[in-house]
Design brief:
The structure is a homodimer.
Chain A: H1 11-22, E1 27-29, E2 34-36, E3 47-54, E4 71-77, H2 83-93, E5 99-104, H3 107-124, E6 128-133, H4 153-166, H5 171-183, E7 185-191, E8 211-214, E9 225-228, H6 232-246, E10 253-260, H7 266-282, E11 286-293, E12 303-310, H8 313-320, E13 323-324, E14 329-330
Parallel strand pairs in A: 3-4, 3-5, 5-6, 10-11
Antiparallel strand pairs in A: 1-2, 2-4, 7-8, 7-12, 8-9, 10-12, 13-14
Helix pairs in contact in A: 2-3, 4-5, 6-7
């Protein structure tokens, strides 16, 4: 295993230390591994909080900032953060208007965020609402999941609910945006290689040099099937087909993300995006906004995922609203 | 070789097709592999143009847009674009105030951009000035280079000269900014793995599982030496020492970039950045601005590079000026 790390037991804190040094505008609690937008909550604004296991950077810490998350709680690699820390962050970001928890659908995360919501409500009377993201069409249940896994759709929920909160909408309205996004977003991924968890020191799974795994999970959980390595166009089909089979994306504008898993260069992601656009266009799907890059990764895994979200005028406006975070930034 | 590609002979055009689809605000000439900021030059503005071999994405095409490049000419992977295409792009971006060529110091690039400047001057009377970037302290001459190689410093030259042009400065002033940056920027890289050129189908060089190569070039050219794999802190030292040994970075603010080579996850780059900051601070170097991410890559190589640039008030102001490109974006 060759990684730019110092100690397999400290990779999360060491990485957060770098994030804090690079982004002094953020307030990073290294001891509790929480990235905050600032030292104090924004008065009157709904707090938007997410988190989960580390290893998916820039998710979630890279999305803390104006127009997106108020805080992100980082667990160990591929391990949910504990309820007490999520509760602490929840209390900290409550500006008096309540807090939204955005939770990827993994058993540990769902349980810990639920306990955290109860703890925060009991301790500081903060109103917490939770939206669970379960957008991965690959498999119904999985290693760490009852139901579908939460993957790339989380990036859209965080941006769009974050923009709604920034615009001053109340908790019910912010929750409504998050739910609408979660209900209308679908993803599917593919692995060309395994990832290697630092503490394990070896690849999570073995994948032959001439095979790829369709429907891979972001922790290396088994996908749908292994197939011989093929070209970008056929891989695009293999991602698009199950997504379009699950939800109708015709008849309105769509957000699309071609996301890298961490070890795949940007040039290849653009090749994938070209093929995705060509195929979606042929099938009557119109992309209104896009993201191409590394947005939700699996450590050093090579591969990519496709996420589609049905847009509406409100969501398009929220998307275009300014955002200033380490990993997504545009507008004033 | 597992890559998200369709045809090893078309990776550059296929990738540009994706860039064009993702960024309809750009004007992409797929036939000639030129990415333009728009269909027409900006009247009165100095044109800022760069380019070179592909495989370093987002450099250069990802830096075309408001506040940075007017055009980028993409050669084949690791191969300079031909003079006729560079000349065509030069003529196209001339808004009547001349054009700056930003050229990485590789023999093919230097020669082809020089011929292009002569062609453009002869054909359309455009005034062209050239700034060559040669910031890599690793080796004096190299496989494709007389003198030092041009690497990460190019990102800073493109942003800062681009901002100077956007601010309406004339060609001499824009050239002066580019030269000042080129004179005051230094880089050093390390490879944990080789890269694989698609058309070659196998790694460019062999690197044992327990060794890294210090001073690697962005095309996999030999570095200074191979050493046993070690931790991020010691790698930070191995990058910092030769840079500080070459130029004094104390006594004023500094720009710093920890750049990924394409196959290294962001979490590891932040770990490197934390170590870099700690060490530079101890040695009296003060970082005023930073970039952490994949900005100039070597296909799928794992590894990173460090770039330091001496700042001054003018450069800091130019850095903070708005930029809107696929890969760098902030401000209005």
């Amino acid at each position: 295993m060759k990684k730019l790390i110092n100690d397999v037991d400290n990779v999360v804190v060491d990485s957060l230390r770098g994030l804090a040094a690079a982004h002094p505008e953020l307030h990073v609690d290294l001891e509790h591994r929480i990235v905050y937008r600032g030292a104090e909550p924004v008065p009157g604004k709904v707090g938007v909080l997410s988190g989960g296991g580390s290893g998916h950077e820039p998710l979630h810490g890279g999305y803390v900032g104006v127009g997106m998350l108020d805080a992100a709680v980082a667990g160990e690699v591929f391990t949910s953060p504990t309820p007490d820390l999520v509760a602490e962050a929840t209390t900290h970001v409550d500006g008096g208007s309540g807090v939204l928890h955005i939770v990827k659908n993994y058993t540990g995360d769902v349980m810990n965020f639920e306990m955290a919501a109860e703890l925060a409500a009991a301790e500081s009377d903060v109103r917490v609402e939770t939206v669970v993201v379960a957008d991965d069409v690959a498999v119904e249940d999985s290693l760490y999941t009852a139901g579908r896994r939460g993957v790339g759709g989380t990036v859209f929920v965080e941006k769009l609910a974050g923009a709604a909160a920034e615009a001053g909408r109340d908790l019910d309205a912010v929750v409504a945006v998050a739910r609408r996004v979660a209900d209308n977003v679908r993803s599917m991924g593919v692995a060309l290689t395994s990832c290697t968890v630092p503490a394990a020191g070896k690849p999570t799974f073995d994948l032959p040099a001439d095979e790829i795994e369709l429907g891979i999970g972001i922790h290396g959980e088994p996908g749908r099937k292994r197939v011989p390595m093929t070209n970008a166009g056929q891989i695009a089909d293999a991602l698009i087909d199950p997504i379009l089979g699950d939800l109708d994306f015709t008849g309105g504008p769509v957000f699309a993300m071609v996301n890298g898993m961490g070890g795949t260069p940007l040039s290849e992601l653009y090749i994938m995006y070209a093929d995705v656009v060509e195929r979606l266009t042929a099938r009557g799907v119109t992309i209104a906004r896009n993201l191409v890059g590394n947005y939700i990764t699996s450590l050093d895994m090579a591969g990519c995922s496709l996420t589609l979200l049905r847009a509406d005028d409100d969501l398009l406006g929220l998307w275009d609203a300014p955002v200033h975070t380490p990993a997504l930034s545009w507008g004033r």
